[in-house]
Amino acid sequence: MTKTEIYLVRHGKTMFNTMQRVQGWCDTPLTTSGVERIEDLGRGLKDTRFAAAFSSDSGRAIETTRLILSENVAGHKTPYHTDQRIREWCFGSLEGGYDAEMWGVIPRVLDFKTYDEMITAKTTFEEICEAIYVADTANWAETYETLSTRVMTGFEDIAHKAEKNGGGKVLVVSHGLTIALFLHLINQENNVRIDIDNGSVTRLEYENGQFTIHEIGSRVYYERGKE
């Protein structure tokens, strides 16, 4: 059986990314520069034959996937599915507000004076998630148990399905914090400082129920597409 190699991409830059607003389950379209970077990424991956493609069900992830596949040598033949389990975190009532506002509230919930103090203290994904849950006045945000379970089972099921169908290279498009959390769940040494840029590629291998991380947040692929 061919090994399963996952090309995990963060969606292209959106309106809310550009405006520095909180964007979890709410959704905005890719900007012109966001589209251009993903088109570059598609060209950088154009000769990579994907056995299958998956994305979250958010519009920005769907748009990103279609742009990548439109540049791909066999993109029109690639089976494509969406999975809501690999959505971004849900930020509840904090959705749509400015990033600075949310990241001003979360440290205070955790008894830190500033965001920098919180990060320096090596605050965990679990602590940040639970602080969001506490700060959310709409009661929509997820507990860490709910969030981590949906993220891990989502990626595991995608990888297992790909392996069962013969393996090969698989394109998966998801979101910044979701990808970072997934990497942490694989290896706890990956912490909240992980840099996952829009359009970056995180490459993993899946075999016998185990993920192995080979590359995190690589910009090489979209840079290659510019050439």
From TrEMBL:
It comes from the Bacteria. Gene3D superfamilies: Phosphoglycerate mutase-like. The keyword Hydrolase applies. Keywords: Hydrolase. It holds the Pfam family His_Phos_1. InterPro entries: His_Pase_superF_clade-1 (IPR013078), His_PPase_superfam (IPR029033), Phosphoglycerate_Mutase (IPR051695). This is Histidine phosphatase family protein.
